């Protein structure tokens, strides 16, 4: 089967650093994606890791370890606007195509 | 703004009814994906179309169907609606069928079944 595990909630203080972990079990792994979703809004693509290591995009970084079936999203210099849900996702093969299987999401609350 | 449009934004209907949700992908994107998001189920993949052809199917009920038209817009049809179908329905688009990892989501349609 396939599963993605991530914490349901994380709280952090403005200006701090927070790490959101994601462990996965899947066959035919291609890479790990991260999406951000504000309350009532649409998911927004953040990053994609196909190879081991750290990818940095501004205040956000994403890490992947294929051997550990593990990845994380690192948010630095937290701002109030970073309060949102964060989803990790893996590609799945279905019929003659592909789709994304999303984790249940981590709700991040940034406090003053 | 992702460039993906969805209509309507909100839809309120009764059990047993049928509704159609519409999605226009970003210019140049050939793939359209449909997702259902409810409070207790997270983002559930329903179906994927690429250039008019169905490519992948997820947890889509038999009461639900979709199609993608020659102009690449897509419609999701939900029939014999039940209370449990109340959810946010998103469509997303990507350039190719083989690169689903980066998807651009529309603003969603909030469906309420009374």
Provide a short characterization of the protein structure:
By secondary structure, chain A is mainly β.
Instruction: Pick out the low-confidence regions of chain B.
Output: none
**Multimerization state:** heterodimer
Q: Radius of gyration of chain B in whole Å, from Cα?
A: 13 Å
Helix content of chain A: under 10%
% residues in beta strands of chain B: over 45%
Principal-axes geometry of chain B comes out as globular
Structural class of chain B: mainly beta
Write up this protein.
The complex is a heterodimer of chains A (112) and B (114). Chain A has 112 residues and is mainly β. Chain A is globular and about 45 Å long. Chain A has strands at residues 3-5, 9-13, 18-25, 32-37, 44-49, 53-57, 60-65, 70-75, 84-94, 97-102, 106-111. In chain A, the strands form two sheets. In chain A, strands 2, 4, 5, 9, 10 and 11 form a six-stranded mixed sheet that branches. A five-stranded antiparallel sheet of chain A has the order 1-3-8-7-6, with no helix packed on it. In chain A, β7 (60-65) and β8 form a beta hairpin. The mean pLDDT of chain B is 93. Chain B is built from no helices and eleven strands. Chain B has strands spanning 5-7, 10-13, 19-24, 31-38, 42-50, 53-57, 64-68, 74-78, 87-94, 104-105, 109-113. Helix content of chain B is 0%, strand content 53%. Chain B starts with a strand and ends with a strand. Chain B is mostly beta strands and 114 residues long. Chain B is globular, with a radius of gyration of 13 Å. Chain A binds chain B through residues 30-31, 33, 41-45, 48, 87, 89, 91-105, and chain B through 2, 33, 42-43, 45, 48, 50, 54-58, 90, 92, 97-98, 100-108.
